[in-house]
Amino acid sequence: MTATSVLVMLSGCFVTLFIWARCTTVVCLVDEKLTVPPARTTGYNSTGVSTDPTHGKPTLSFECGNNSQSCIGICILCSDYYGGPTTDCLSSLFENLCLTKFESAMASLNSTDWCIWSNVRGLYSNLSLCTERMSDCLQIPWPNPLVEQTFVNIHSKYFKDCPAEELSDPPSVVIFALVVTPICLIPIMVSLVVLKTKNGDGSS
């Protein structure tokens, strides 16, 4: 069981306790604005979210990304606290689920190790996968401006002092040699062609 699924389960427990404390009857709706069609019988699961009696799946006001338990928990949280799959909810998920784990892992490393790719590659990949998973659950396209801003922020916080020698320009002497060599070869090639043409005309 991953840390993400544990956090989602704990969040689900919190939502259940919150709803139980607010409701005085056995059956209540999480969002009072939701209405149940009169011709349809609706049941309620342990989280207080209405469920489809034929399939037992939560009925949300928006389409959830997939039917995995963690994804449904994320969709329920966004529905309860943000009214839907908003970028505010996605930002909160990034902050509380993805970045918290990444930052605690980075804090366990020495700052001198941050610039060694083999030390941070796994953490970086996990952060990327986490942001992708959250976006997919809420059916928000990935990458998106929020993801880009998240990675810009972590680069400016953790990797701004890392040397980028492999991306630096070569020395000016090398650039000069690479530019001048073809320029010098052009007159030599033209001279060889002219000499060959003259020799060919003279022999015939």
TrEMBL record:
Signal peptide (UniProt feature, chain positions): 1-25
Main location: membrane
TM segment ranges: 173-195
GO terms under cellular component: cell surface; plasma membrane; receptor complex
Keyword set, alphabetical order: Cell membrane, Disulfide bond, Membrane, Receptor, Signal, Transmembrane, Transmembrane helix, Transport
A Gene Ontology biological process term: calcium ion transport
Gene Ontology molecular function terms on file: coreceptor activity
Cellular compartment(s): Cell membrane
Membrane topology, record value: Single-pass type I membrane protein
Family the UniProt entry places it in: Belongs to the RAMP family.
Protein name (record): Receptor (G protein-coupled) activity modifying protein 2
Protein source organism: Monopterus albus (Swamp eel)
Source lineage: Eukaryota, Metazoa, Chordata, Craniata, Vertebrata
